[in-house]
TrEMBL record:
Coiled coil regions in record: none
Membrane topology listed for this record: Multi-pass membrane protein
Designated name of the protein: TerC family protein
UniProt GO cellular component terms: membrane
Length: 261
């Protein structure tokens, strides 16, 4: 086992998997930050840390059910109409429902922030998430949605790396643990920064809406959906992350400009 983990192929796979988990975890951190900031101040750090630790446990448990997760991508029902063809799988359903959930939560939050008076901010927060357990439950639901996609991607990347699947399983578990440790280190500072800057809250919610639409199109792509003879293609994740990075850069410049004024 140790000999395998110290090989160059295993080390490169570990670095790649860890980087992948961290990049895909950015969406998670934004959602966790917004969910945790709805709680009283004394519970926010706890919600963030507990949410990420439970997310790590959840992902490790899911890794032990890799064959089950791979089975989720197999279609169990096909809709064939003159204008629509869809091969429905459980993976597509999870991504589709997750996309709808993100869009609903984000648009609700944006409407609340725009329509609610600022002096009643604490009252508004208490109406949305009433307890620590409720916030953690929401965090685990959204992490499960992202975990299915990221774990299947990780399985594809490590396929054929070693004849013994237990070795690659250990490699994926190590990558998950390292990535969660990195996210725990950065999650609370990011959450506090988002809480201090209302414009960043709106931007983060806009990102979640964008990610929600991406999950829906990903579900359509995995279902081999054809609408009026046109197949639905996957949106390259690089485009999404470039848009997010560019928006953050513009917001950073805007923040610096305001400080100088």
């Amino acid at each position: 086992m140790l000999d395998f983990l110290l090989t160059s192929d295993a080390i490169m796979a570990l670095i790649t998997l860890t980087f992948l988990e961290i990049i895909l975890g950015i969406d998670n951190i934004v959602f966790i930050s917004i969910a945790a900031n709805k709680l009283p101040k004394e519970q926010r750090n706890k919600a963030t840390n507990i949410g990420l630790l439970l997310a790590m446990v959840q992902r490790i448990v899911l890794l032990f059910f890799v064959s089950f997760l791979v089975g989720l991508s197999e279609p169990f029902y096909t809709v064939e109409l003159n204008w629509l063809t869809v091969a429905i799988s459980w993976q597509a359903i999870i991504l589709f429902m997750g996309g709808l959930f993100l869009i609903y939560k984000s648009t609700s939050e944006i409407r609340e922030k725009v329509e609610s008076p600022s002096y009643d901010e604490d009252g508004v927060k208490s109406k949305v998430i009433k307890s620590l357990s409720q916030a953690i439950t929401q965090i685990l639901i959204i992490d499960f949605i992202f975990s299915v996609d990221s774990i299947l991607t990780a399985v594809g990347m490590t396929n054929g790396l070693h004849p013994n699947n237990n070795y690659t399983l250990v490699l994926m578990i190590i990558a998950v643990m390292i990535s969660i440790a990195v996210m725990i280190g950065f999650a609370n500072p990011i959450r506090k920064f988002i809480d201090r800057n209302p414009s960043m809250q709106i931007l983060g919610l806009a990102f979640l809406i964008l990610i929600g639409f991406m999950l829906i199109t990903e579900a359509a792509h995995l279902s081999h959906t054809e609408f009026l003879g046109k197949s639905v293609g996957a949106i390259p994740k690089g485009y999404l992350y470039f848009a997010i990075a560019f928006s953050l850069f513009v917001e950073f410049l805007n923040h610096k400009t305001k400080k100088k004024l």
